[in-house]
Structure formats: structure tokens, C-alpha cells
Amino acid sequence: MTILETRDLKKYYGSGETQVKALDGVDLKVESGEFVAIVGTSGSGKSTLLHMLGGLDRPSSGSVLVNGREIFNLKDEELTIFRRRKIGFVFQAYNLVPVLSVYENIVLPVELDGRKPDRDYIHEVINTLGLEKKLNNLPNQLSGGQQQRVAIARAMAAKPAILLADEPTGNLDSKTSQDVLSLMKVTGQKFSQTMVMITHNEEIAQTAHRIVRIEDGRIVRQ
Fold first, then answer.
1. Which of the listed residues 70, 102, 188, 221 has the most CB atoms within 10 Å of its CB?
2. Hey, where are the domains in the chain?
């Protein structure tokens, strides 16, 4: 079943001779439970595409559908709530709150949504990611790999159907990168989540079920 789809997705900046076509008619389908890597060089449009998939930025034209629902038909407040509940984000910069403990960072998105965390589920995620002994630590007391695992746990805390990862291993060494990616695959499969990851690293992309290559705002190979 298709969970995520784009139709003729375009994002243009500027006009006339200086116009930049960050996305220039992207058609993409992602099936439920799939792990897709989107690869491309810097400036190819892959980050722009990820931001559109997650509803972080609105396109110039075209559609993004999640479970058949056009997300950009939603008003800004509705889109924020939809994004918070249905989509998890993992960024290259871990974006952890420095004054909060590991556990407080993980449950923060759920609490911001005015809901009570599902403690059994969250502790299962924490154990899967090997963070059970770090829950009272502050982010600056963790290694880069541990911080990224906290960021993954936080992204999963709200039980999102889709996990979007933007260069999630960009700040990590090769061994830690492989460890983090392995954990992402395990957690994605264990909790039935669809994952889309962008990367410029061909070796890392090989860990995905499918590789989508983007150049100059267009998909050139799937």
C-alpha cells in the first residue's frame, strides 16, 4: 500500500533568469514499511524534497499525499498537528534540548502535543536503541552516536507512521554510522514504520530497500 506520494512536485525560488528550480516535477511513491534512500549531490534538491514530504515547506505546485490525503490542503495549524502526530524527523544536527535529560528530550514532542507518553512503548524503543542506562544524562554527557540515538527515539516517541531522516549519520564516524543505521532499520521494522532517508553517501544508501537518485530537482533513477 502506498503511504507517501508526490505528484508533479515543484519548488521554485526567484524568477526570470535567476530562478532556481529546486524541485522540477517530482513523482515518487513510497510503500508502507519501505526504507527508501534518496541520494544526490549538494544542491540536487534532496533536502528540499524531504522538507516537502514532511510538510515543513510548501511547494510552488504539485501534491504530497500521506495515506491518500493531500497535506497541503490543510491550514497551517492543522498541518502542524498532522506533522507532529504522523511524521518523525531525524536531522544531521541532533537538535536536542541541552538542559533536558535524555528521557525528557525523548518525550518532549508528545508532551508538547498535550498527550501522555505511552511509557511501555517508549521504554521498548529506548531498550531497542540501547539508551536505558542514559535516561538521566544531559545531551553534552553523550557521544555523537548516543545523541543521534536519542534523536531517533524522540522522532519515534509519537508513534509516527513515517520517519524522515536528513543525513542522519553526517556527523558520525563510519562505524558509528553503520551502528545507527542498523538500529534505524531494526526499529523501523519492529514498529512498522516507513523510512525515507536522504544522504550523499553511496555506501550508507546501500542499506536501504530502494535507492532514488535525484539531480537538478528531478528524479533520474529509482
1. 102
2. 2-221
Q: What pLDDT, on a 0 to 100 scale, did the predictor assign at position 60? A: 94
Q: What is the pLDDT of residue 99?
A: 96
What are phi and psi for residue 151, nearest 5 degrees?
-65, -35
Contact yes or no for 34/206 (Cβ under 8 A): no
Mean pLDDT per block of 10 residues along the chain (222 residues) reads 95 89 94 93 90 93 94 92 89 89 94 88 88 94 91 89 88 79 81 89 88 94 78
- Three cell numbers written together for 18: 535567476
* 60, three cell numbers: 510552488
* Cα–Cα distances in angstroms (integers) from residue 110 to residues 53, 84, 96, 116, in the given order: 21, 8, 15, 7
Q: Is the dihedral of CA 153, 149, 37, 207 positive or negative?
A: negative
| Torsion, CA 152, CA 157, CA 163, CA 167, rounded to 10 | -20
Look at the pTM and tell me if it is higher than 0.90. Answer: no
178 by DSSP, 3-state: which?
helix
- Hey, which bits of the chain come out as E strands? 2-13, 20-31, 35-39, 61-66, 69-70, 87-91, 162-166, 194-199, 210-215, 218-221
Q: What topology does CATH give the domain 2-221?
A: Rossmann fold (3.40.50)
Burial class (CB in 10 A: 0-12, 13-18, 19+), 74: middle
Residues 94-118 pLDDT 10s: 889 999 999 999 999 899 888 888 8
